[in-house]
Write a structure and sequence with these properties.
This protein has helices at residues 2-12, 35-38, 44-54, 59-72, 79-91, 96-109, 113-129, 133-146, 151-166, 173-188, 198-205, 208-221, 225-238, 243-266, 271-297, 305-322, 330-336. It is an all-alpha fold. It folds into three domains: 20-126, no CATH class; 131-206, no CATH class; 228-336. The protein is elongated and about 90 Å long. 41% of the residues are buried.
Length: 343
Amino acid sequence: MKSNCLSLLRAVSVLSLFVCISPSGFARHAYVPTQQQAKPRASEAEAKAAVAINSAPDAAAKLAAAGEFLKKYPKSTYRQELAAYIAGEIGRVADASQKLKLADDFRNVFKENEELESIQLVMLDGFLDLKRIDDAFSHAASLLAKHPDNVAVMSHLAIAGTEEAKRQNAKHVPVSLQYGLKSIELIEANKKPANLDDASWERQKTMLPHLYLNMGILSLVSGNPAEAKTRFEKAMVLSPAEPTSYAFLGNIVDSEYQQLAQSYKTMPEGKEKEETLKKATEKMDQAIDLYARALGVSAGKPAHKALQDQILQNITPYYKYRHNGSIDGLQQLIDKYKAPAAP
């Protein structure tokens, strides 16, 4: 099983399951007010200065403008909203190195605790983008010490840990499992963290099948195939169009078949040996069906090419064994599980 598992991990390592982190993991949607909105809360001069920040051309310019604004109006009632707005602009910067540089500069402009929270997930996003995994987990631990129910942090670190496990780096597997299972618990109980807005919470809930899939992979890497099997089955139900769950579940059933086959070879003739052969044959048929499902739902998806190639290597000898050395009917079995053509 270990060899097949490693092959599948390599096959799925090119697939990205990340969902971009947003500052809304900490702060509700924020904006710099228009001049009309600003008037009741500020002088006309302060309102104009706040509005002017919107017109800065990019995140760096907006941050610089915000710094000038706060020098002139250090006690502005818009400080926290402004911090969240600028953090959001930095979060949209495509270049991860520049994003982290701006995030560091942000902390020189905004220094109050509530303001600094706005930039924390942006920094985490930057660490992940740059594959600075140790920094990401260290940063996440400090965030979760203050916000232990922050599902945005936990779910993304759980997936990041899975991506590292696919690359044969198991350093963060235990804590990734912890984060992922806690995220699943919060989502299934619909326990929305108080500092997460409704739209962000709905986005987090859509990650549930990805979390089950990733927790299955981490369980498998940790040597717990029974737990992995349960989690892959859950992922399969939640997202029946995702081929990876079928592939890994097929791999586990395949391993169960191989164990029965080995036992069968060493058994003396008799009823127990016959029953073992029957069980082994049933497991082989289950593995064939799961592999065929994975091939069917992934058909026509170039991103899954490596996974498809690996599964074909697994399914073909089994199918031939069960069909007198022929692959006749295999394609029809795969086609049965393809998504219906769009009308």
